[in-house]
Amino acid sequence: MYRDDLGRFKEFKAQGVAIKFGKFSAKENKQLEKNVQEFLALTGIENADKLLYTDRYPKEKSVITDLKRKHSFRLHIGKGIARPWKLVYYRAKKMFDVNNYKGRYSKGEAEKLKVYHSLHGNDWKKIGEMVARSNLSVALKFSQISSERNRGAWSKTETQRLIKAVEEVILKKISLEELKEMDCKLQENPEGRLSIVREKLYKGISWVEVEAKVETRNWMQCKSKWTEILTKRMTNGRDIYRGVNALQSKINLIERLYKINVEDANEIDWEDLASAIGDVPPSYVQTKFYKLKATCVPFWQKKTFPEIIDYLYETSLPLLKEKLEKMVEKKGTEVQTPAAPKQVFLFRDIFYCEDDSEGEDVEEQS
């Protein structure tokens, strides 16, 4: 960081620009593409594949490496992008990987993937090279085809396995110092109540690991079900998105999105926006926003993000307010004020609390 990022970060700070993480915006992608093309022109390296996947060209590797070092590749690729250079580099590799845009897998490719995995395990880099696909692509595809997965309602047994799996994966990521501190607290007060910071409940979780522990569901199903469970436990089981509360949440969401006035959905701080609905995970708010635009904005796929928000604000918002007013008047129901997000939760309230989300222990169907 001292060598590659500190100088850049100081410049961004002087300009009042915050360092970003998470998804890249369309503007950042455009700047990154420009940076790569400029570096290729500067060095004479033939293409982005040689620049970013130098190991694929052993005969030219030393020459390309020297050019990258001579012309400060790490600084150049991050120019104008307020992120750590490594994140910029990983994004560039994904954008310019010629193996990343090859469409659906054929039956033959899927069978080869199974064979290579039996030989090389989870060495996705090696397997990716063997089938000419990106590391991420082969890992996700294998997750889908490795075994039969259940569909439909989760059984109680599956749900309990999921909760246990998420707990284990989160604890695995906690630093040694934090674990020692937790252990000391338990020794001092065995009846004490351990707490966990909210971000650790949904950020940085390896869903591939969770999937492997659950066994009967793929990683996407696990992530979606965990969001459902976590939302219910964060809100103590209250219906925060039903009836008049749902209407008020949609109104709050539209007004907040209009107020922040961003050019791209990737610029939104979903963590902060969650308070428009209540004490919920960011992914819950993203899902609700997707459903809102998909149901209210005609041809939303062809509109820019500002156009979507303008339509919601100018057309949908007045209708929602009118509907809410009529519903409150008719039913005499009070609208609940969204709960402020808690920054810390008790461990037992998240991982050792039985609720309706655990379902019935029914026979699992594939």
Automatic annotation (TrEMBL):
It holds the Pfam family Myb_DNA-bind_6. Signal peptide: none annotated. Residues 146-230 form the Myb-like domain. Gene3D superfamilies: Homeodomain-like. It comes from the Eukaryota. This is Transcription termination factor 1 isoform X3. It comes from Galeopterus variegatus.
